[in-house]
Amino acid sequence: MSVAPPPGSSTTPRSKSWTVRTREIGVENLPPEKLLPDGQPTYVASWIYVFGVATIAALIVTVGSGMILALKGPAWWHYTGVGHFFNSIHLWAVELFFFVMVVHLWGKYWMAAWRGGRTRVWVTGAITFIIAIPTALTGYVSQQNFDAQWISTQAKDGLNSVGVGAFFNVTNFGQMYSYHVLLLPVAVVLLVSAHVLLVRRHGVVPPFELETAREPASAPPPEPRIPPPSATDTPSSSTGGARS
Amino acid sequence: MSTAVTGAIFNLNNPAHVVSWHFIQLSVSNIIVIGLMFVVFFAAILLPFPGAARRRESRS
Questions:
Q1: What is the CATH number of the domain that holds A165?
Q2: Backbone angles phi, psi at B8, to 5 degrees
Q3: Tell me, what's the pLDDT at A131?
Q4: Which residues in A have their CB inside 8 Å of a CB on B?
Q5: ipTM, 2 decimals?
Q6: B55 at A interface, C-beta within 8 A
């Protein structure tokens, strides 16, 4: 069934093909120059904007080391030096992930990063934070040592007190391990992907003073952008690429 | 167990030090991490980003 465009509309009707429709909607919402920009606004050249990409870097190391641990099984790190090494990489990447994610959260909170139609950017980030907590908890109770036993027996009382113990049993190793290596990491990665795509779509939130300065102008000029590093840049300046 | 204890920077073979204030209980190690996060947060705001001023001047 074809749908005629509404009267006065200059848009062409959507294709019947779902692949074409998906492509058109994708390109419409995230054109290539927004999806993979060649520069960022000058205000992004600040250390406080580095912590988002630092969180992603820590997540990549966490997932990578976790994949290696998953290949060898949960007991591997107890009896081999290599296993212990990758387990330590996994642990410290998680510690770093939460550390930089909290600094990222503080920075974005004080910038009121939900401004300018960025509500979904803020919400996906907040949900990622909330989902990351049980992802870490299920990892701690999957260590197969006395630490895991202690944490699980303490956590079960808290979870039982809010009525979720029957569905989320922290003393059930199989359930916790499944949550830790599949369900929760997939949720975190999908949420982070959505978060980054939404940042690409809406742009990095500007500082307050820039936004206030732009308000009186009826047609604000485009924000000057940092050019990509060129061959004439010094090594120190070429590392100063802005990150969101 | 002995390898884990001797391999650590601090002696881990004792209960953690805890700071209590009314209903709030925080281990000293967690307080140190939270303090470090504050230090990094304010450093990120106050420290100049390499090349930022030069790029702003070249664009103005």
A1: 1.20.810.10
A2: -85, 155
A3: 97
A4: 42, 45-48, 50-51, 99, 102-103, 106-107, 224, 226, 236-237, 239-240
A5: 0.81
A6: yes
